[in-house]
TrEMBL record:
Species, as recorded: Daeguia caeni
Gene it is expressed from: purN
Pathway: Purine metabolism; IMP biosynthesis via de novo pathway; N(2)-formyl-N(1)-(5-phospho-D-ribosyl)glycinamide from N(1)-(5-phospho-D-ribosyl)glycinamide (10-formyl THF route): step 1/1
Domain of life of the source: Bacteria
Domain Formyl transferase N-terminal: 2-182
Record: residues binding N(1)-(5-phospho-beta-D-ribosyl)glycinamide: 12-14
Lineage of the organism: Bacteria, Pseudomonadati, Pseudomonadota, Alphaproteobacteria, Hyphomicrobiales
Keywords: Purine biosynthesis, Transferase
Protein name: Phosphoribosylglycinamide formyltransferase
Length: 205
């Protein structure tokens, strides 16, 4: 089984979905540890409750971004992940960091990339009047929310949606798609089969 480290900054619901999936006997990946850049991240207690090791690297405890990343890299050298899954990790990784795990860092973003990268994704989608929203799992490269797309799932935008209601609907799709993509990726299949990975839906006005 492939060794996976998950990076979080927040509630960790995607992390939980990955942990839950990894408990299946035939799942090709195991979660070795959860790393957080926030000491108060809600996901930390959830990881601990699941019996997963947690490691906390608060940015302000380090003199520079480089020093912060060095500390994380040193810990990773000990944990020896094959794959790193960013799951709500709200920090850009440097090119140097990414090069250390080239092609082995996955991220989930709550939009149909390349639309709406970065923050306030859902409000921007609502403001644009899109009828489909969704989420994307992609390989991490230096640009924010860039890198080759592995899979996307779409959900409808419904009349009366707020950023919160839309975020909640997208999140349920995230919880389905991320474990699927990790399963495929860890078993060496370059890309998930569309039939497995895609949830297509549309709303009319
Ligand atoms: C998720 O919606 C994830 O896609 C998003 O943060 C949320 C984390 O929720 N990530 C980004 O916006 C990264 N650009 P979670 O902590 O409950 O998994």
């Amino acid at each position: 089984r492939k060794r996976v480290v998950i990076f979080i900054s927040g509630g960790g619901s995607n992390m939980e979905a990955l942990i839950r999936a990894s408990r299946a006997e035939d799942y090709p990946a195991e979660i070795i540890a959860v790393y957080s850049d926030k000491a108060e991240a809600g996901g930390i207690a959830k990881a601990e409750a699941a019996g997963i090791a947690t490691r906390i690297f608060v940015r302000k405890d380090y003199a520079s971004k480089e020093a912060h990343e060095e500390a994380i890299l040193a810990s990773l050298a000990h944990d020896r992940p094959d794959i790193i899954c960013l799951a709500g990790y709200m920090r850009l990784l440097s090119g140097r960091f990414i090069a250390s795990y080239e092609g082995r860092i996955l991220n989930i973003h709550p939009s149909l990339l390349p639309l709406f990268p970065g923050l306030h994704t859902h409000q921007r989608a609502l403001d644009a009047g899109v009828k489909l929203a969704g989420c994307t799992v992609h390989l991490v490269t230096e640009g924010m929310d860039e890198g080759p797309i592995l899979a996307q799932a779409a959900v409808p935008v419904l009349k009366g949606d707020t950023a919160e209601t839309l975020a909640a609907r997208v999140l349920t799709a995230e919880h389905k798609i991320y474990p699927l993509v990790l399963r495929q990726f860890a078993s060496g299949k370059a890309e998930p089969q569309p039939a497995d990975a895609m949830i297509i839906s549309a709303s009319l006005f």
